[in-house]
Each structure stands twice: as C-alpha cells, then as structure tokens.
Amino acid sequence: MSTPRWVRIALRITTLAVLAFIYIPIGIIILYSFNASKVATWPIQSFTIDWYVDAFNDPGIRAALTASVEVGIGATVLSLILGSLLALAVHRFGFFGREAIAFIVILPLALPGIVTGLALNTAFRAIGIELGLLTIVIGHATFCVVVIYNNAIARFRRTSRSFEEASSDLGADTFTTFRRVTFPAIRTALVAGALLAFALSFDEIIVTNFTSGAGIQTLPLWIFNHYQRPNQLPLVNVAAVLVLVISIIPVYAASRLTADPASVAGSRS
Is residue 267 part of a domain? Predict the structure, then answer.
C-alpha cells in the first residue's frame, strides 16, 4: 500500500519546519559572529572577521578554551575507565543488585543538572575538597560515564561470547582474552562513546557552575558570564560558534563510527 501524496508532502513540510526551528537560530548566531557592528541589528549591514581575531587574542577566551579541553579530556578518560568496567561487570557477571546498578549508572543523565550540581557542590564542601578543575572533571564524569556505559553495554550485547570461550579453551588467560578478543570487539563503541562524552562535557554549563572554583571558567561558563555585557557581545558570538564547531566534530565522528556498514556503503554508492 503506497502512502498518499498529501501525506508525503505534509511529512516533508513538517520535517523542514522542525529543522528550521532548530537550526535557523544557530545560523543567526553564526551570522552575527561576522557582524561588523557591536549592536545586534537586523539586517546585518557589513561583515568582518575582526571579532574572530580579537577572540583568539583574548586571554580570557583562550584560558576558558584550554580549561574546557582539559576538563573534557579528563572527564572522558575517567568515564572511559569507569563506564567500560561497569558495562563489563553488568553484562558478563551475575550478582545481586545488578539491575539496580545498571539503573543507578544511567540515572544521572535523567536528573536535572541543577540537582546534580548542587549535590556535588554540597558533597565537595562537606568532605573538604576545594572546588577547582578536578571537581569539574568529577562532576562531568557523573553524566559522561552514562554515554560510555550505554555504548559499551550495547556492543557487548551484540557480541558473541563464543570467541572469548574459544580463546580460553586455547589457553589464553583473562587479560590476553580481553586484549585480543574482547577489547577489539568493543573498541569502536568505546571510541564513539568517548567522542560523545567529550562533546557532552565541552558544552556543559549547569554542573560546571556549581563545581568550578574561583578564577576557573570553561568556555560555556565564560559565555554565560559575559553575555549581559553589550561590549562583549561580538566576542560572545564568536565563542558560541567555537563551542558549536568543537561539539559538532566529535558527534559527527561518533555517528560515523557507529553507523551500520551496509547503510554507509549504500549512501556512498
């Protein structure tokens, strides 16, 4: 049974409307980053790249960008270790409370960021940990670990254990089996999860606001703190474009890594 023509047209119009609703505001920000005027007026009278030069020469933006990259890498590495080990334990071994642990691991992604941030802030202060770069990394890892865990557990469920059993039967120990059989099977899932975790950490602001110490700003936090200053608006637009670009690249790479090979081959042909 073929789909009526009017249904196909309605679906296309709806799709275009949704895409326009999502991406037109982003496109406007990109255009304003090239606006020669400090005032956000429409239509734009003239364009310039001077704001990009000023942004890259601004010590505050450079420091915030460096902090964002350091936090993203730290949170990703920590999440990779914890998420992969948790996925391996939950999928490979049976123990009391396994389902509860799986739920608890995923829960931070569903919790409001302000609740997570407030809870972490209170916990750090209660045990005497000074807020700084390390506390931001820990805060971001609480939700980045979910991405790693979900990717790893999904790949484990699609991977047959017969290869691991064959490796053990041939005399390989646990570490050798993991290195030569298990890890290669889940490697792309871990890399994709790490890329998504970095992107998730790089543009996070709510948890960062509660876990950052004095004098430490990530790039999203710098944008938030300078948005209300009219003379800083052009630099804010450039910083927003920078966050957008750096977030899109790992997400795109992750989508390519996890794409179905058949669909990728079909799209190329």
Answer: no
